[in-house]
Amino acid sequence: MENLKNKTIGSFVAQDYRTAAVFSKYKIDFCCKGNRTVSEVCEKQEINSDALLQNIYDVLQSENNSGIDFNSWPLDLLADYIEKTHHRYVEEKTQVLLTFLDKLCKVHGANHPELFRINELFIGCAGELSQHMKKEELVLFPFVKRMVKTKDGNGILSQPSFGTVSNPIAMMMHEHENEGDRFKEIADLTNNYTPPADACTTYKVTYAMLKEFEEDLHKHIHLENNILFPKAVALEEEFA
């Protein structure tokens, strides 16, 4: 297993998404910071690398009856999936959470002042993610799809206004990291989405939704950072 220590976290998750649960158990960021090697992460977080790799190996060796092999998908299909699944999820859930958090601040803010910071963080997240997704839908994803179409012999690939696909990808990855940091703070403030003893039904539902939102965001970012983006860079290099 020694050679696996130099494999990146993101590549493990791209190979089999079930390994994400292992990294989460060890509090290892597999999406925004998936470009780090197992060795780097274990040294920094003082984790037993042999134990971690054994957990990963056990998952990879077990039968997978439910996982989807996104790593084998064509890039245009993957881009469509991200937009229609994860982008739509964000658009739908954001408005509901904004309403619920505003209500919680008004009703419970006096006894739970952390709610104001949570609300502030999520408002920032909603605004940034909205702009972020539009840049992907209007700029990055269309170019990825044009590359796929050109490779298939349907058309000519013209030079994009952003120069190389690595430029918007670097911006998207930076923004992903910002959202990861934002949600880490939200998780800390909510005690990992654990409602207080005096929580009403809306309080409990809001925390459950925030937890689900973060989990979906992790999947969303993983598909882009660890699969779509590196393959888009590699595809562009084929045209060079």
From TrEMBL:
Pfam family, one: ScdA_N
Domain Hemerythrin-like, chain residue ranges per copy: 84-232
Keywords: Cytoplasm, Iron, Metal-binding
Subcellular location per the Swiss-Prot or TrEMBL entry: Cytoplasm
Keyword presence, Signal: no
UniProt superkingdom: Bacteria
Keyword ATP-binding recorded: no
Matching InterPro entries: Hemerythrin-like, RIC_family
Primary subcellular site in the record, as a coarse category: cytoplasm
PANTHER family to which the protein is assigned, alphabetical: IRON-SULFUR CLUSTER REPAIR PROTEIN YTFE (PTHR36438:SF1)
Protein name from the UniProt record: Iron-sulfur cluster repair di-iron protein
Organism: Flavobacterium soyae
Gene: ric
